[in-house]
Specification:
four-stranded antiparallel beta sheet; eight-stranded mixed beta sheet; homodimer; 8 helices; 13 strands; Glutamine Phosphoribosylpyrophosphate, subunit 1, domain 1; alpha+beta; disordered N terminus
Chain lengths: ~325, ~325
């Protein structure tokens, strides 16, 4: 595993030779997660190591000729199963003290896509989102209807208490006392050897959010977008701001309609947000990666066929 | 009231003098609603008269100096209360035989927006969407959480049986027997004398849809978008196709990033859809109106400060 290094948009590859595959992942943008925790396993170095592990997981799929869609699902599944991230098992709790999970996935080859929102009993929301995409006539299913569909297609369900971990209960209790808010998201974007793009995003939403609130993560065009004609995008940050600007779709639209290169399109979309709102990861058909953000940190990593392999937080 | 006339995109006003206010409304795109009904009050002439009435309602607000946001909410409220349209009282029933309602609204001045989805007990979903926009920190609330919020902000609720009308029960029964599907939406877009744009959309979704399915109507960027820098848009048709293309946002993005005029942007966004998917209404800051569709019919009407007043179906 290579050493970690800081990746800023300015240092993205600009070599004439395009990468034949590329992957970027994120674990949320905002403030340092370790600011609020001093537990073993939650230091900055632990987060960097966790990012490297999921990057390796996705890299093996893509370098082996696997599909971008499989890579972005597998990476996000692994992050959903790691309690460090605000998605799946590690989801923050709503104002009511329960977890409500959202996720979406999109295939840039066909514009096929799927999303689920406000689900409480599905172990890996990203896999249910993929089932919505591939095995339903719909694009977005929410709540009990989505959970009934999970049973129909045999996607694994768990008791809602699976997500109410001791750590999240402590964070929730402090939020009640201090009025704190915390958010976070995980996501992945990939280009595969066949030239196909895909994007995925999953979240537990915002700590102490209202019951029934849906953020940008399950919404195609807001938190997630992929189109082989332009790019694949996964966003993280204050979801409402990404919805009102259609940020994920906006990056693709700036490339497709405005003729911008990936990096200019991604940077302009983030510049349209308010300072502190968040960031995004994006990859285009040439394997170029952009990861702009306007928060203190964004947990992120990128790898490609030319040997790039780096993770960063600040 | 002027006589009805056919409005096609080619006949939109192109005079040098801009309209100081403008309004467009739609009642869905697809096949003729009267194809499946021969009841008194549901003839084509009844639909045209209903479109003229709501156009007059919105016109009075805008000509009197009222806000675009008030005009698009009031027009859609009136359509939600008219059993002819697939929204509010006239919503089609889901596969489970119940009504699940979706709506959204957006203010082009501030990009403020709100949406609600899969609600079953709110008389006017568009007014709850406006309350989400103005009185919650969120942009999209779904299901029971949205209904609890309706109580918090005193938006009128009704028993779920309010929407299970004899007419919809007959349509639902026939759908069970024949495997028919029907969809429809209502929407409005407006420019006011202050130069502000707004858009609104409301629907009962697709007849026999899966429980928990969310279409494009409550989704900012998919079914509804408004941005004073470009245009206001409301879409109608096969919702999944509008979500995967971010159609409402795409019209705005083609204007903002591609430099297209309203009509070219709107036509290109509809040309991107599959034939038969639907259509949209859009208005820009010059009061130009575009209403392209690729279905057999789209129920629609437009009025402006220069005396335009016309409704059409085919």
């Amino acid at each position: 595993m290579s050493e970690t290094e800081t990746i800023s948009p300015e240092q993205s590859p600009r070599a004439a030779t395009a990468a034949t595959w590329a992957l970027a992942v994120h674990g949320g943008a905002g403030n340092l997660q370790s600011d609020t925790e001093h537990e073993p396993g939650y230091a900055e170095s632990d987060y960097l190591a966790a990012l490297e592990r999921v990057l390796q997981t996705g890299l093996r799929i893509l370098a082996g000729g696997g599909a971008a869609l499989d890579a972005v699902e597998t990476v996000v599944r692994a992050m959903e199963d790691d309690e460090r991230w605000n998605a799946g098992r590690g989801a923050v709790l709503t104002r009511a003290g329960t977890a409500e999970l959202d996720a979406s996935i999109m295939d840039g080859r066909s514009l096929a896509c799927g999303g689920v929102a406000t689900i409480t009993t599905v172990k890996n929301p990203i896999s249910l989102a993929r089932a919505v995409m591939e095995r339903s006539p719909h694009v977005l299913l929410v709540g009990a209807g989505a959970e009934k569909f999970a049973d129909d297609v045999r996607v694994e369900r768990v008791d809602a208490s699976h997500f109410v971990t001791p750590r999240q209960q402590r964070l929730w209790q402090r939020a009640q006392n201090l009025g704190e808010s915390e958010h976070g998201t995980v996501g992945a974007v990939a280009l595969d050897l066949q030239g196909n793009l895909a994007a995925s995003t999953s979240t537990g939403g915002t700590l102490s959010k209202l019951f029934g609130r849906v953020g940008d993560s399950p919404l195609i065009g807001a938190g997630t977008y992929a189109d082989n004609r332009s790019c694949a995008v996964s966003c993280t940050g204050k979801g409402e701001e990404f919805i009102r600007r259609g940020t994920a779709h906006d990056v693709a639209a700036r490339m497709r309609h405005g003729g911008h290169a990936l990096e200019a399109a991604a940077s302009a979309a983030v510049a349209d947000l308010r300072p502190g709102d968040g960031g995004l990861i994006a990859v285009d058909h040439l394997g170029r990666v952009a990861m702009p953000f306007n928060t203190a940190v964004m947990y992120r990593g990128a790898a490609d066929s030319r040997g790039r392999f780096a993770v960063a937080i600040r």
